[in-house]
Queue: 2 jobs
Job 1
Amino acid sequence: MSKTKLADNLKRVRDRIAAAAVRAKRKPESVRLVCVTKGRPDAAVAAAIELGQIDLGESRVQDLQTRVAKLSEYLTRRTSGLQLSLQWHMIGHLQRNKVKPLLPMVHMIHSVDTLRLAESVDQAAGKGGRKMPLLLEVNCSEEPQKFGVAVGAVECLVEQVATLPNVELRGLMTMAPHADRAEDSRTCFARLREVFEDVVRAGRAGPGFRDLSMGMSQDFEVGIEEGATIVRIGTAIFEGV
Ligand SMILES: *Cc1c(COP(=O)(O)O)cnc(C)c1O
């Protein structure tokens, strides 16, 4: 594992995020980088944390559990208390029976796509005495095999989720279809932003509704140009590390 390579990658990604934000006439701080750690060695993830990376993402509950346990052990040995400031993001498909163990570990859930799932989160959050931040995953490309609520059903789901007392609806998330060129994701991201703006204009969500999670290693600059406030990046950070 090369810490120098990791530091270079992370710096390059942060610079590219800042440049894309400036191109879009936005402040670089308006985009949050979630470092996606799925499948990466613990040592590399720990090194990213030591380089100041606080927001981290995993796509499976089991992996997140293992990771949190391993890293808090590691970080307690290295630097007392640092792990307290970590913010884990659940970015993958979530099953209702996994909600309960997930909640205490996680800062935000990006992948809520049904009312039933939102209700499970609401119940578990209520028992834990907390208000859980979440995003609704939207299937902007309308590929039938993909998770996410259909574009036409977003407003209705927003309205329903907004009534749940123990969740805080923060915005929308999408994954563009796999493509070779970043530009191919633009239509999908622009679509998500339109849906987001429609929801805001219709007064369907509260003031906390302000996030758009869109853009991965391949297409995060396009995501930012189209209004992303959160990008989820793994490969560009860990490649060759
Ligand atoms: C894996 C994953 C990412 C990161 O993908 P990279 O191409 O490695 O940057 C982002 N979002 C989700 C939902 C993922 O599963």
Note: The mean pLDDT is 94.
Job 2
Amino acid sequence: MSSARAPLVVLLAASSIWLPLAVSQSADDCAFDNEGGTISTCNLVMNATPFRLKSWKTGTGITTNYRGGPGVDAQQSNEGGYAFASTSDMLQDFPLPTKAWMITSPNNSTDSLGRCLEFAFASEGLCVESLEVLMVMYKTNDVDEIFFNNTLTKDYQVMSLWRTRQSTKAEWKKAQVTFSAPTPHSLVFSASPDKRFASRGGYVAVDDITFTEGPCSNECLFDRDLCTWTNNDTADNFDWSIGRSSTKIGTGPSKDQGSSLNTFVTTGGYAYVDSSYPRLPGDKAWLVSAALQPTAVPLCVKFWINIYGGGTGNFRSEYDIDDMYMKFDLHCYRNRPRETAALVSKPFTLTSDVCLSFWVYMSTTILSHIHIGALRVVLMYEAKNVTVWRLQNQQLTDWTYSQVTPPNTNSYVAIEGVQGPRVIGLMALDDIAVYPLSCPLEPATAAVQEADCPFDQDLCQWKVEADGRSSSPTMMWHLALNSKVLIDHTFNADEGGFAYIESFNTDQKSRMKSPFLPANTTFCLALWFSDIYEDNAAKLSVIRSSEGREETLWTVSQNVITDLPVSGYTTATWRYAQVLLPSHNTTYQLVIEGEVTRSAWAVDDILLIPGRTDCI
Ligand SMILES: *[C@@H]1O[C@H](CO)[C@@H](O)[C@H](O)[C@H]1NC(C)=O
Ligand SMILES: *[C@@H]1O[C@H](CO)[C@@H](O)[C@H](O)[C@H]1NC(C)=O
Ligand SMILES: *[C@@H]1O[C@H](CO)[C@@H](O)[C@H](O)[C@H]1NC(C)=O
Ligand SMILES: *[C@@H]1O[C@H](CO)[C@@H](O)[C@H](O)[C@H]1NC(C)=O
Ligand SMILES: *[C@@H]1O[C@H](CO)[C@@H](O)[C@H](O)[C@H]1NC(C)=O
Ligand SMILES: *[C@@H]1O[C@H](CO)[C@@H](O)[C@H](O)[C@H]1NC(C)=O
Ligand SMILES: *[C@@H]1O[C@H](CO)[C@@H](O)[C@H](O)[C@H]1NC(C)=O
């Protein structure tokens, strides 16, 4: 069905030449001036604790370079001020990395032409995951009260406007972002750490923040008009118009790009052409930018497109760009925690490397409830399923690009959603593509080792070793289902989802053995455990088992408490452990051994991080 009717021709071009700005100061600007040793933070809100996040700091090359900040500011002065987020602050609560926010003071809605934010940024170190510019939209009109009366428990919603993930290697770069806001809002500079490189340190810094009314040069939100873009009267046959929401059934986007993922935002505008009558096949509509200045560096044109309906040229039969994505339904009341739904491929026979790429969206609008579930890529063999990529719980408030090269095998590939507790949020998947080349795993936080286990559906690749003494399956390691004793650590959901052993009056020992770990690699083993109904004979150990030799690497016992609660339940909580697994000259297995007499052990979220040298 490729009857080519009215193909679209879009002429788009953009420039990011840094023309000197007409000097028009906005109350939101900030150059972090060094005023006799005090760095001015202008009207910025530097304290992010109302959002339960870490804060940015100010500094100069002279005062903060040795504490992990940049050596100069954006004007290349070692005395000039800047703001920065250091990864040592963001990783203070390891293993729960925390973002750092710097927030512009709340402002009213913008007008429909929007505003232009320009700023300089620099970053260095492997430990920086990303710098993002977010828009926080407040549900209240009384914006002054939000920070100054600490009433931020009120609902707000976050939308991502801009993001970079590459280190600038300490070089200052410039960025611009055009945005419009229909509600009272703040913009946020959000730095995220990469916890895998916690030992390396790093920073993200920002300087010379300016705001101007209207869009940034050559940019256009198409919320009010075509900005500096024009329709050409001579070279084409019909014109582009501004639309808000399609009034026709079967064609036109229902919302603009900025609001399509965000129910909180009323719809903005977009430029569009309608190919229906009186348009004829071959008609063209040109949207032409203002004249661009020559540049020494390549420019990048970015735009969002939406093509929908019959008769929109030959795009329709080749792509399906319908504002559509696969959604994992988090809201369905019949779904229980840890239930899964899988999209399964045709059988794959992989004889050479391929790159499986896709985009995921995993976010909740309630930032205090970050547990929403997991998405994972699973290779399905006859006898076992192997996870090769996994992201869980709250991610960026934007689509995240993801890719993985599965090992060469014969298997089905499934992309699986795992239900967390019931939450308001969205888990979605889009643009799955397979390329004939190998690619590094993205995002780095989705890396999975074979011995990792969140204990969602099973014990993963861990095997329980039979022990002659164990008379009942509950006295051996097993997956806890419907447990009322403890809330699962992975999703903070009830109904089990961790490894568990218990005994009421006999000495029991049970061992769980990992798949083989590679030789000559140092790992940091991270796990969560809980001791339930304390008993002084109980022990939990991590043992390395290699060619018949065993070496205990870590042991913990339970503290005796004299007054057991009457109900028989303790208020059990999860505790975190890290165990260094020094490099070994052969492959080996890990054993998790639990000993109990009148108590229980629970273990969850086993994670192996290769190459970590600072594991304690
Ligand atoms: C808020 O926005 C207006 C116009 O959009 C701007 O003039 C003003 O400087 C901004 N900031 C504050 C703190 O009012
Ligand atoms: C927002 O609008 C209200 C009402 O028009 C006004 O009183 C207030 O000063 C404005 N706030 C800012 C930051 O511009
Ligand atoms: C803070 O909010 C509370 C509850 O709305 C109100 O009673 C109180 O007067 C406010 N205080 C200030 C300083 O605005
Ligand atoms: C329309 O496009 C043609 C061909 O590129 C160009 O010569 C002409 O100047 C344009 N006219 C306007 C009004 O942009
Ligand atoms: C692998 O996963 C699929 C999809 O969730 C499931 O139906 C199947 O039972 C699993 N196979 C094994 C061996 O666990
Ligand atoms: C591995 O290390 C052990 C001691 O830790 C040593 O006895 C053994 O010879 C080594 N094996 C190899 C192949 O190097
Ligand atoms: C590990 O290193 C040892 C000593 O360098 C070497 O003999 C052994 O072959 C290596 N093992 C593997 C699996 O690479």
Note: Residues 143-148 form the longest helix (6 residues).
